Amino acid sequence: RGKDEKYKVWMPKLRMAKEYKDKRKSTDDVERNIFKFKKGSEEKSKKMEKEEKVFRETFMYQKEIRVLARATAERSVPSRRHADLPLTAGEQLDVIDAAQPHAVICRNAQGRYGYVLVEHLNFR
């Protein structure tokens, strides 16, 4: 025996259960998917900024965009004008401004803005 082998400490080799290895692999996959999600959210935020810019130009809206309330669309309504927001039943909307007594400016989940009649909304 050499000098190095004399002082070497023997340690048992720990074995991992196969189920644990599979779980660890799946968590690694999830972490990789998180990075893909970030890329998509960046694209979505750029799209939202573009929609906001179009909204400000179309409606000549100079105030800060704040959500006053949340509302749900009661029924599907197609848009008749460029300034109207098309609705689908059950869609969640952010109310931005009450510009007229019978219509409000809303934003949908895709970031589009437009007028919506109050009679089509459910405030709860």
Automatic annotation (TrEMBL):
Residues 55-121 form the Helically-extended SH3 domain. One of its GO terms (biological process) is protein localization to plasma membrane. Pfam families: hSH3. InterPro entries: FYB1/2-like, hSH3, SH3-like_dom_sf. GO terms for cellular component: plasma membrane. Gene3D superfamilies: SH3 Domains (2.30.30.40). Keywords: Phosphoprotein. This is FYB2 protein. It comes from Melanocharis versteri (Fan-tailed berrypecker). The gene is Fyb2.
